[in-house]
Each structure stands twice: as structure tokens, then as C-alpha cells.
Amino acid sequence: EVQLVESGGGLVQPGGSLRLSCAASGFTFSGIWMKWVRQAPGKGLEWVANIKQDGSEEHYVDSVKGRFTISRDNAKNSLYLQMNSLRVEDTAVYYCATGRGTYWGQGTLVTVSS
Amino acid sequence: QAVLTQPASVSGSPGQSITISCTGTSSDVGGYKYVSWYQQHPGKAPKLMIYEVNNRPSGVSNRFSGSKSGNTASLTISGLQAEDEADYYCSSYTSNSIYVFGTGTKVTVL
Questions:
Q1: Secondary structure, 3-state, A34-101
Q2: Searching chain A, which residue's CA lies closest to the CA of residue B8?
Q3: Alpha carbon of A52: minimum distance to chain B alpha carbons (Å)
Q4: From A93, which residue of chain B is nearest by alpha-carbon distance?
Q5: What are the distances in angstroms from CA A33 to CA A36, A79, B68, B86?
Q6: pLDDT per residue as tens, chain B (110 positions)
Q7: What does the buried/exposed string (b/e) look like for B4-18 if buried means 16 or more CB atoms within 10 Å of the residue's CB?
Q8: What would the pLDDT profile of A13-49 be if each residue is shown by its tens digit?
């Protein structure tokens, strides 16, 4: 059974940092692109970033470029999102998903507030 | 980056067919075959319904179908059922090597 389990969300002050993790199981993690997608409360989906199988290529939406870093550890079947200089508008549920979007995690809530 | 334009809401009676449009540009929807559709029920993670314009993942009902013409993609739900009531989002690869989502459409089963 495929599972994606996010963790690391929580409450952080503006300007702070958080690192999200996504533990994958049930498929060949090292063989596919992975991505992060977020959804602000009551709003639509926003694609955030993705990363190639071997970590050699990454892409980001403009609003997070220079602040967020996506990474992966294929030996640990894990995906990460390092979020720095967080803003109030980064408040959202963050989902990890396989590149095509076939499998998604349950999401982790990040709240940026003073 | 610009998002793709979808109607805010679409409704239909059980058994009817409905179509949701997703309008972009030649730099996204019109330029690539990588258009996907997702269904999202309240409080749940999105579920992939269609990928690469018109392909259904294993386990997705054949009542769901996708198509594309020019810069507009479409999702058709035939034989509408109560369980189809949800939010639907399109997504496309773009010339900037990133993906964008549509604005989302709330489907109501009357």
C-alpha cells in the first residue's frame, strides 16, 4: 500500500523557519519526481515545488523562490521542504505528492502568525 | 504565475452530464499534453481523476473523461452521482518548467 505521511507543520512567527518532511512507502521512491502543493484555508490549490528523481533538478513557484528549498533522501524514502523567511501568506495545508499526482499525503498545517 | 481559469460552480441533476472548462494560454494548457484534473472533497487530499489530458488512473470511474482544444481543457462527468459533489481543479505544465492549478470549480448535484 502506498503511503505518504507529512510531518513538521505547526505555528511559527513571521520570519521564522520550518522543515516539513514526507515519509514515503509502498512504491519505488527513487524512481519518480516528487512535489509539494499547498492550500491556504478556504482557498484553492497552489503548486509549490518539485524535484527530480536524483535531486539534480528542482523548480519553484515564484512566490517561494529563494525562501523554500525542496530536497530528498532516497536512502530514507523521504521528501523535505525547508521553509525560511516565512510570511503570513504562507499559511496553508502542505501536501506532498508523487510527480504525476497519483498519490498524496494527508497534509500538514503550517500557520504563520505573530 | 497566472492560474488557469475555471468556472466557480457547475451544477447538474443525478444522471446528467456536466463539463468543467479550464482556460489557459499557449504557454501552458495549449502547449503541452500535461493537463491533469483533481477531485477534492472537504477536508480531504486531492484525488487524481485525469492525467495527460485524457487518461484515467486505475480505479477512476469511466464516467470521468478529459479533452483539450487549443488553450482550453475540459473535464466531463457523465451519469452524475451524489458522490461526485466536490471541488475540481485542473493543472497544467508550463513553459517556465513549473505547474499551475486552476481556480477550482465547485460541483453541486441537485
A1: EEEEEECCCCCEEEEEEECCCCCCEEECHHHCCCEEEEEECCCCEEEEEECCCCHHHCEEEEEEECCC
A2: A44
A3: 12
A4: B45
A5: 11, 10, 25, 27
A6: 668 999 999 999 999 999 999 999 999 999 999 999 999 999 999 999 999 999 999 999 999 999 999 999 999 999 999 999 999 999 999 999 999 999 999 999 99
A7: bebbeebebeeeeeb
A8: 999 999 999 999 999 999 999 999 999 999 999 999 9
CB contact under 8 A, B46 and A95: yes
Inter-CA distances, A39 with A36, A74, B45, Å: 10, 26, 10
Phi, psi (degrees; rounded to nearest 5) at A89: -70, -5
The pLDDT tens digits of the residues spanning A42-94 come to 999 999 999 999 999 999 999 999 999 999 999 999 999 999 999 999 999 99
Tell me how crowded residue A2 is: count the other CB atoms within 10 A of its CB: 11
